[in-house]
Amino acid sequence: MLQSISVSNYALIRQLDIDFNPGLSIITGETGAGKSILLGALSLILGNRAESSVLLVKSKKCVVEGIFRIEEYGLEPFFQANDLDYGSPCILRREIAPGGKSRAFINDTPVTLPLLKEIGQSLVDIHSQHQSLLLGDTLFQLKVIDELTRQPKLLADYQSTFHSLRKAQQDLKRIIEQADKSKVDLDYYQFQFEQLETAKLFNEEEQYELESEQEILTHAEEIKLAIDKSMACLDGEELTVLPILKNAIRELAQVEGFFPLASNLKSRIESTTIELKDIASELEIHNEKIEHDPARLTQVQDRLNTIYSLQQKHKLRSIKELIDLRDQLSDKINEIESYDDEIRKHEQLYKGIAKRVGDLALQLSSARIKNLPQFETKVNQMLKNLGMPNSLFKVENRISEEFAEHGIDNFSFLFTANKKSEPQEIQKVASGGEISRLMLCIKSMLSESSGLPTIIFDEIDTGVSGDIADKVGNIIKEMSKGMQVINITHLPQIAAKGDYHYLVYKDEMAETTETGIRLLSGETRLEEIAKMLSGKDVSHAAMENARVLLSQ
Questions:
Q1: Per-residue model confidence (pLDDT) at position 369
Q2: Kind and range of the H or E run holding 545
Q3: How far is CA 508 from the centre of its chain?
Q4: I want to staple 65 with a disulfide (CB 3.0 to 4.6 A). Which of 93, 101, 130, 398 is the partner?
Q5: What is the DSSP annotation of 495-519?
Q6: Percentage of the chain surpassing pLDDT 70?
Q7: What distances in angstroms separate CA 89 from CA 3, 70, 113, one per listed residue?
Q8: Is the pTM higher than 0.70?
Q9: Strands, E, within 354-453: which ranges?
Q10: pLDDT by residue (tens digit) across 260-305?
């Protein structure tokens, strides 16, 4: 519930402070006095946008602050979810700087404008003449039906599952597109893989080994000749190393008895002899292994040509890189071939979610439709009470074959004010006054289920007078028993029904005009009602009439 509002430096308001109470509060004033300005200021703390042009004094900031009692409205989760301090009363504040920069606060904590708007929608419903035009909007009509259906969990479950269905549909489409694109590349990948697979590449060192073998086979005759000559030098028929070393060992052995150094020198020559014999043996082994083998050389060259060709084709430099590429191609082929399984899995998931969405959509539609006869009956009865005996209000529903954000229902509000005329879409046949009265009926019903603390009517009584105005006032008065109602009106019949009556006025000064507001009571309220009846020149009859209205 709105406890108070404070406005400074906004439009024609220099400083204004108003306290509000439960029940029905009436706001009246002459045309142009500033009633709409007051609503504009209130809309700022409910999250509407503003510009620096709203400043009365352009060099000072505008501040609008509203204090709300919120303990009865279950708003704790909102404060917890947004890391805000919960407390009642709750203070909403908006500041507009001279440069146009805006700041918003909830309980002195800076917040974003969307967040301020979100909590504002849970606290106050401002109903203006402009909002009555929403009555022809299909989304607004659906929202009305859902408010009256009172199945928020069912609607939330449906919308959550619908979003899951949409995601599953997008995922399925994406994987089908990937599969189609990949299948175009499958033959290419398969061809490349088979080339690499046929090459039987397993040993990462194979290229180095083959290149070494190629060198040996190419120069086999030169190598064998060199080995033969080396062996002849070590232990040949002519003057060679090993026989000479053998003679040196024998000579040193003869003098080692009286030449101590001879023994060490002899040992060193013996070690050298053993090493040279080992080298000679190894040369002989290699000599036997190395052969001039043109057939094997051809095999090695062919194998190397295969490897070089693959490296050049794929712009790689080693067998390891070719092996890695082969494995990558194998993975891609397996992935492409597994797309069919993935598509089947996604199709099954999509079908499962679609069935769940279908079940929830039917439940939601059934709950909505079940409530329609009572809704139509109540609205039609209220319209008759508001002086429209020949009017007929109906709700038409066309079930869609496709799921949408809000279900499968497509509601249309149909209306006629004339006897024996077929109801048509509201926006096509209803006048402004008829729409206002129809909207009042709907708002009255919504007030029983919405849980909103406060509703503000901005001249919803446009186009009515006399006995009908009195009945409009009765509906508004009845609404105020369950919620706080603030009603801006120009009709005395309605103004007289208020528990509290505020007057918006202009204060004409030498250099400026300012808007003010004050709470009326007693004689001041009686005089205001009389003025609304007869104009500025209040007659005795107007005063008596006003007294009768107030007494009722």
A1: 95
A2: helix 540-551
A3: 51
A4: 93
A5: HTT-SEEEEEEEEE-SS-EEEEEEE
A6: 97
A7: 8, 6, 20
A8: no
A9: 392-397, 411-416, 424-425
A10: 898 999 999 999 999 999 998 988 888 888 888 889 899 999 999 9
State how far the alpha carbon of 397 is from the alpha carbons of 142, 366, 426, in Å.
10, 11, 14
User: Are the beta carbons of 454 and 124 closer than 8 angstroms?
Assistant: yes
- What are the backbone angles phi and psi of residue 504, rounded to the nearest 5°? -95, 130
End-to-end CA distance of the chain: 26
Residue 133 Cα distances to 127, 130, 144, 394, 431, angstroms: 11, 6, 14, 18, 11
pLDDT at position 133 is 67
1-128+459-520 to CATH, choices 1.10.1040.10, 3.30.70.100, 3.40.50.300, 3.40.50.170: 3.40.50.300
- Give the per-residue pLDDT at 349: 94
Residue 239: per-residue pLDDT: 64
- The helix (H) or strand (E) run that includes residue 528 is helix 522-534
Q: How far apart are the C-alpha atoms of 105 and 94, rounded to whole Å?
A: 6
For residue 283, the surrounding DSSP H or E stretch is helix 260-289
d(CA 343, CA 133): 48
| Phi-psi sector, 150: left (phi>0), alpha (psi -120 to 50), beta | left
- Cα dihedral value 419, 421, 427, 431, nearest 10: -30
The span from the CA of 380 to the CA of 333, in Å, is 69
> pLDDT over 90 for what percent of the chain?
41
- Chain segment 480-510, per-residue pLDDT in tens: 988 899 999 989 999 999 999 999 988 877 5
- Cα separation, 154 vs 362, in Å, equals 11
The CA distance from 42 to 50, in Å, is 12
- Cα–Cα distance between 401 and 56 in angstroms, integer? 55
The strand pair at 500-508 and 24-28 is best described as parallel
- Calculate the CA dihedral of residues 259, 261, 265, 270 and round it to 10 degrees: 60
3-class SS of residue 280: helix
CA 367/CA 369 separation, integer angstroms: 6
Taking each helix axis from N to C terminus, what angle separates 138-149 and 339-385, rounded to the nearest 10 degrees? 80
Amino acid at 165: L
Helix (H/G/I), strand (E/B), else coil: 467: helix
Residue 187 class from Cβ within 10 Å (0-12 exposed, 13-18 middle, 19+ buried)? exposed
Query: Mean pLDDT throughout 240-244?
Result: 85
